[in-house]
Specification:
This protein has about 280 residues and is mainly β. Helix content is about 10%, strand content about 35%. The strands form two sheets. The protein has an eleven-stranded mixed sheet. It has a two-stranded antiparallel ribbon with strand order 3-4.
């Protein structure tokens, strides 16, 4: 159990994302498609502790693969962990205490009320002028009426890209309804190029409801892909396994609202087919 006092949890002095000078980066859709298929030579593996204090069924929590640099001279990859405020008032991350934050909600998708879980994690980024940047990212999972996950939205406050992964059953329904992918797109679920979300990969439907594998690339710790646990791994070699604590999203304090990313209704960002249970 993580024992850092609540009084040390987050103030508002951390950065919302990998931005400098207030400028937002632009992202090439072709890069988003391409990096979803990358493989990792080495990675850290994070999994939930068996006892999640009733916040979430551990089988629904994500398994996280954090890529390690291939260059032995590269700086160590900052681990994900507990966000706290140190004695100097700086927001920091205890990467020796891995943590994933979670909350739940409900949302209407094409007129049907859907259950959603949101997962987030944080790490320290480059320091400047003696201050520490803390970057938080995550995934919002939307479930079908049978409890199986059907949509995974990437939550990245520092990126303008709208990146969404969908289940094989949703993509199959979209292909039946709308036909083949539109020009410049990879999947039938996607709206015309330049509009709506980018879908880098379709996730296989698992035999039971379960959390995804989330892959964090080494350069910026950005999410470059998700996969079903039933799909092949992107990682050649896991060098270490770390168990993470699951804590309420509210314990992120003033950082939590920065993950309240709402790019609009899913049916307005995707070619949502009828008949999805």
């Amino acid at each position: 159990m993580v024992s850092i006092a609540v009084g040390l949890l987050v103030s508002g002095c951390a950065s919302a994302g990998p931005q400098k000078g207030g400028a937002r980066r632009t992202v090439d859709p072709a890069l988003i498609y391409a990096r979803a298929g990358r493989s990792y030579a080495r990675a850290l593996f994070y999994k939930p502790k068996p006892d999640t204090e009733g916040l979430i069924d551990p089988t629904l929590a994500p398994l996280i693969a954090q890529e390690l640099p291939t260059d032995p001279k590269a700086a160590p990859t900052p681990g994900i962990g507990l966000v706290f405020v140190d004695a100097d008032g700086q927001t920091r991350v205890h990467d020796t205490l891995p943590v994933v934050y979670v909350d739940s909600s409900n949302a209407y998708v094409a007129g049907s009320l859907r259950h959603q879980n949101r997962f987030a994690w944080c790490h320290e980024a480059a320091r400047s002028h003696g201050r520490v940047d803390v970057v938080c990212r995550g995934v919002r999972v939307t479930y079908g009426g049978d409890g199986f996950p059907i949509v995974w939205e990437v939550l990245d406050p520092g990126s303008p890209a709208d990146v969404v992964f969908v289940s094989e059953s949703v993509e199959s329904a979209a292909a039946e309804r709308f036909g083949p992918p539109l020009p410049g797109r990879h999947y039938s679920i996607e709206r015309p190029a330049g509009r709506g979300a980018i879908v880098p990969l379709v996730l296989s439907d698992g035999p039971v409801p379960m959390g995804p594998y989330v892959y964090l690339e080494a350069d910026r710790n950005e999410i470059d892909s998700l996969r079903c646990r039933c799909m092949s791994s992107k990682v050649d070699n896991y060098t270490e396994t770390r168990e993470y604590e699951v804590l309420p999203m509210a314990e992120l304090g003033k950082l939590a609202p920065r993950l309240d990313i709402n790019r609009g209704a899913l049916e307005s960002r995707l070619r949502w087919p009828d008949g999805i249970e």
